[in-house]
Write the structure tokens for this entry.
Amino acid sequence: MSARTSDDDFEVRIKIGGPAGFGIKAAGQTLARLFMRAGYRTFDLTEYPSLIKGGHNNYHLRVSSTEIFSHVEPVDVLVALDESTVGLHLNELTDDAAIIYDPKDFDIAEVAGIPTQVCAIPVPMTQIVADQGGPKIMRNTAANAAVLGYLGFPLETLADSLREQFAHKAPEIAEQNIAIATAAYEYGTKATCPHAPLTPLPDTEPQILVDGNEAIGLGALAAGLGMYCAYPMTPASSILHFMAKHGDANGVVVKHTEDELAAMNMVVGGSFAGARAMCGTSGGGFALMTEAYGLAGVAETPCVVAMISRPGPATGLPTWTEQSDLRMVLHAAQGEFPRVVLAPGDRQDSFDLAWQAFNIADQLQTPVIILGDAYLSDHRQSVAPFDPSVVTIDRGETITEGEVTDYQRFKITDSGVAPRAIPGVVGADMIANSYDHDEHGWSSEGAEMRIAQNDRRARKQELARELVPAPQRFGPDDADISIVLYGSTKMPVREAMKWLASQGVSVNMLQIVTLLPFPDEAVASFIGNAKKSVCIEGNMTGQLQGLIREKSLIDVDHALHRYDGRPISPEQVTAFIKELL
């Protein structure tokens, strides 16, 4: 049932599937918290259609005693809350997998294709819930308990978690759930199929369970965020939820706007007034923001945009993942102005790049985009707690107090950055609008001033090269295969590199963290020194590969793309690399 590489290493993969509306994700994340608190590393993947109720939802949890970087495809324990779950995930089951199901829902003997070695564990979840007078959604508590019983994991850990989870409700709610869990747990322990026991690990380091959007939110708060505006759009909505929950305690003005146009305009206004301001959206929402995004460019107003992409065009696949908005963010808004695009690859990157984005925005007085995707934003991983002591605050040329004379907001400077005073500073009178302007901010259509202002703004892009994070390298200097990528593809590739190394295949990787300004020399050097080079990205047209050709004047030898709405898997990467070799 479990993957075990030594007496000390243990891994199990659990999938819960069924119709939307039955608390599948909540149930899975309860298990993730239990295992994380017991010292295990966890990584989850939730798949769901854009429906309020109905359709097939599933939650896949990977639990390991050793370091892991991504999800994987195999399933050791499948909890089937309906018959279709078995058929949909039959090909993912490992040889000695177990299926936990309710015989009232379907007869498993009539489901075609189940291998004989797969262990079927009947648990009357519906009846157990009914016996305790609970609603049908409490089947997820019964399912969790049956999984723990089968794995031999202590029931009291779930009982403690349920009391904590329902502490804000009447005490009988928690006790009702615990009674359901106790009954279902016994059915799990009675399973006759073989399994390795899963017990809490001793002396483990502290961990937190966090998704990419929560990590961005934590980084933004650490940076001194003062204003967050957004209109909900999957998969960026959870940043708004995070800020709504934690904003007040951290002095953040949080605004759920009427649309994305208002969100971006409010962020520009909040930043002009002196607050560190941010908004979040996905591709469709960012399309609406681009005019106000250009306003931030010409008014040289620092702000941060979390652009969490999903498959397009138009509404596309709202709840799935893709890396197909790269070109959009590189060229968004009319005209030419400097901007920075940062792409986190995992949760630590998300935290670090969030607080760094505010410094870069202030130092350059221009908008900064954090480019993510649903694979990173929506799914949780257990990681070491983020260290707030590494966070620094740099407001650049911002003047917040005192008095200025002859205030030239857009003064022609060698660096391209001009003095920026916050409204209220004595003598800092100016007009801010969407027109190009002279050094004092007065609208100007003169040819010479247009050239001077354009050239000055452009010089910021060169300064940006000194401020932005460099690419990250992983793996040996000399490798059989060299991979170049950006964003969340980092996670499955790092997992595949670990597997390939154990099989004697050396792989190194260059993660492009800053996509604009593009690190052309570093990328050209990495690819030029490779024995065989591969670009891996989650889109159809090879947007990163094209950017490499454009900026670094070099091309990779091979490319791997995925654009079906699902994340690239370590199994897919491993198979592709082996085929190349």
